[in-house]
């Protein structure tokens, strides 16, 4: 049983940082985490507004306050509107935006976080937008962005899941 737990722990830690390249990790290992705190904010009506965890880290004698872990935001009625996941360095790993019925409208997943010589940080994300048609939620558009610039193939779908438009973007 002990071996199974150790194996699961190793797999989890490898997967949780799979977006980070070796060049980024070489820089990130110089970050020093000095403090962390959990924060819950409420609306005036007592309903939960925001739940998050923050960290303070120091890099090159500069202090930064960043989000880490799960970050949730709620509307005044207490309905969850967004859910984000951050790594231990404050980088987005995933983001979900919900409609009032709890359906995912937009989902963003970070694929790669890299450091290059000519640019400090290069982040590649995969975007998926959903739409509602006749009471059904369907995938509307998918594609990738690198530093918020569309790259590769972007697909637009009809309500049956068929590709109706394909556009190619260069890096």
Structure in words:
This is Toxin-antitoxin system YwqK family antitoxin. The structure is a single chain. This protein has one domain (22-169). The protein is 13% helix and 58% strand. The protein has helices at residues 2-16, 22-28; strands at residues 32-42, 48-59, 62-74, 80-86, 92-98, 104-114, 122-133, 136-146, 149-157, 163-169. It is flat, with a radius of gyration of 19 Å. Residues 1-17 have low confidence and may be disordered.
- Tell me roughly what share of residues is in helical segments: 10-25%
- Which strand order spans the largest sheet, edge to edge or round the barrel? 1-2-3-4-5-6-7-8-9-10
Number of domains: 1
The main sheet comes to:
10 strands, antiparallel
Could you say which structural class the secondary elements and strand pairing correspond to?
mainly beta
Distance between the ends? 48 Å
Strand portion: over 45%
Number of strands: 10
Q: How are helices and strands ordered from N to C? A: HHEEEEEEEEEE
- Based on CA inertia axes, which overall geometry fits? flat
Radius of gyration: 19 Å
Mean pLDDT: 83
Number of helices: 2
Residue runs with pLDDT of under 50 for 5 or more positions: 1-17
């Amino acid at each position: 049983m002990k071996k199974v737990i150790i194996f699961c722990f190793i797999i989890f830690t490898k997967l949780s940082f799979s977006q980070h390249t070796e060049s980024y990790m070489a820089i990130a290992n110089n970050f020093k985490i000095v403090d962390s705190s959990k924060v819950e904010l409420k609306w005036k009506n007592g309903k939960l507004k925001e739940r998050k965890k923050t960290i303070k880290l120091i890099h090159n004698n500069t202090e930064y306050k960043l989000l880490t872990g799960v970050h949730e935001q709620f509307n005044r009625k207490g309905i969850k509107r967004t859910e984000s996941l951050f790594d231990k360095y404050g980088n987005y790993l995933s983001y979900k935006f919900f409609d009032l019925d709890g359906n995912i409208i937009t989902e963003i997943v970070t694929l790669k976080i890299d450091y290059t010589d000519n640019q400090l940080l290069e982040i590649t994300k995969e975007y998926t937008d959903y739409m509602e048609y006749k009471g059904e939620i369907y995938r509307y558009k998918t594609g990738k962005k690198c530093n918020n610039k569309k790259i590769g193939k972007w697909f637009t779908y009809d309500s049956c899941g068929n590709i109706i438009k394909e556009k190619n973007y260069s890096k």
